[in-house]
Amino acid sequence: MKEIYLAGGCFWGAEHYFRNIEGVVDTEVGFANGDTPSPTYEQVYTDTTGYAETVRVIYNPDALPLDELLRDFFCAIDPLSVNKQGEDEGTRYRTGVYYSDPEDLAVARKVFDEVRESFGEPLAVELEPLRNFYQADGRHQDYLVKNPDGYCHLPLKIFRYPRLVSDLKHLLGDEPDFVARLSNTAALLKEKMGFFWTGFYLVGEADQSGTSGGHGHGGASADGKELILGPFQGSVACMRIGYGRGVCGTAWKEAHTVVVPDVEEFPGHIACSSLSKSEIVVPVFRGGEVIGVLDIDSDEVSTFDRVDAFWLERVVNVVRFPGDTM
Questions:
Q1: Helices H / strands E in the chain, number of each
Q2: In 10 A of CB 278, how many CB atoms?
Q3: What is the DSSP secondary structure assignment for residue 325, as one 8-state letter?
Q4: What residues are annotated to the active site?
Q5: What is the CB-side half-sphere exposure of residue 154 using CA atoms within 13 A?
Q6: Most distant CA pair in the chain, distance
Q7: 197, β-bridge pairs
Q8: Which tens digit of pLDDT belongs to each residue from 116-148?
Q9: 125-129 and 95-99 as β-strands: parallel, antiparallel, unpaired?
């Protein structure tokens, strides 16, 4: 087992998030890298002790490599915010990664560089060796387990996604049929997350009859290909979508996740359902090529954000067969 110390704002929600991630063996909340010996919660709360509310995460590196754990960490924080996470403000809520094993530094730096590049701005996240750590008293340990309705600065969905991914791994196992894997993935997403519409479109041969538009917006295609409706959960949907058309066709063409807060504002949006208000589409890769997309719609605007993008990309990675390459 290994350990890493992660400061992600209020440690109540941060601990609850980490304890739901597969490969995490144990968690403990406390105060790291401050100046006052054996501080109490009340002392740290004054922002005069130099400590950050921190979670000690004990994990199995064979099941959860450090780089993956750190990416999970960055998904749960605003890495550009200084001394503030959610509505919580103060130096005790600063973000940081504190390592006890010097060999972890190189891995952490690599992930920090990835995140910095994705945001295009310097990160407000400390990366330092652990100088000290003091355990918080018992009322703060497993706080949200003891107080399910207690305060948390994190969105509820961030606790559901890790459990969903774990459940999906066990559900799909080594099932060899790709359509079966897609079918149960769509069903589990609908069941666990309650999305309005969830399903897959797969790249296939374009309709050569000249009537593909009648199937639901065929139009332009790449190399004689279109997205064809696959396993899904929800209302009747478009059966074919052209390359670069709508949100799905755009995610296929650009080969990256597309998040749309309001579909009415997306150029060329294909209205398969008038009830769809926001959407996220995640490409499915095999051998470096996009072979399909995971399409999820909401009947409310601004449903999806980078948290959904991060975890739904994890879902797609589980759906792909072991050995498949991006």
A1: 9, 14
A2: 22
A3: -
A4: 10
A5: 24
A6: 77
A7: 297
A8: 999 999 999 999 999 999 999 999 999 999 999
A9: parallel
